[in-house]
Fold each of these.
Amino acid sequence: MKFACTLIAVKDIQASRDFYEKVLGQKVTLDLGANICFENRFAIQHDFAGLIGEDGIKTAYQCNDHELVFEEDDFDAFQGRLQQARGIIYLHKAKEYPWGQRVIRFYDPDFHIIEVGESMGSVFKKFYDKGMTVDEVAERTWHPVEFVRQYIT
């Protein structure tokens, strides 16, 4: 068995499509009207209750029990684009975690939490370019040396 994709329920399929394409730069691979698939095994679905065929099912929005996680190589450029987007509701602006990765969290139009983090490859390179050894980068970022080495050597 293999994992197929993550699907989230949305109220307004066009507003959600616009958000994921324009704000997060996702590319549509299949548009079936009420279901839109993006690259990276991610889909949005309008009328989720109708899709699964269960009367009385209630879709919960802003339940804050999960998030969609994206990584960005050019985190600074992404922050600039995000600041230009209208109507973004932030959980928090960019903050740096102890392992050196910067992350920002905000809501999509249906109040699903979106996390955009600086890609760890970028974090590794940032520290390496500042003069840290591969071993020092691995220790600083809490990643195995072999993993770090794949990105910076």
Note: The helical segments are 13-23, 48-52, 75-84, 120-129, 134-141, 145-152.
Amino acid sequence: MEDNFGLFLHSLRKKAHLTQGELANLLHVSHQAVSSWERELSMPDISLILPLAKILNTTAERLLFMMTGEFNSKEIDAFLEKRKDRI
């Protein structure tokens, strides 16, 4: 798994077999917006996190953690695994 948001998003989009344009259409944004997110020139609006997570088969928590850039993938996995135990 990638340890920065842009590469993480790119990887998830590719696994979903979506182009930037297709993802953009599903989210009602421009393909330039998706490109900017993947290049980390900007980040998705908070209102897009849930639909983005659903489309890319991940969790909103994981997207938000990756967006902060403060945690690596292993730390996020460990945190989310601990939460599963409490639910």
Note: The chain has a mean pLDDT of 90.
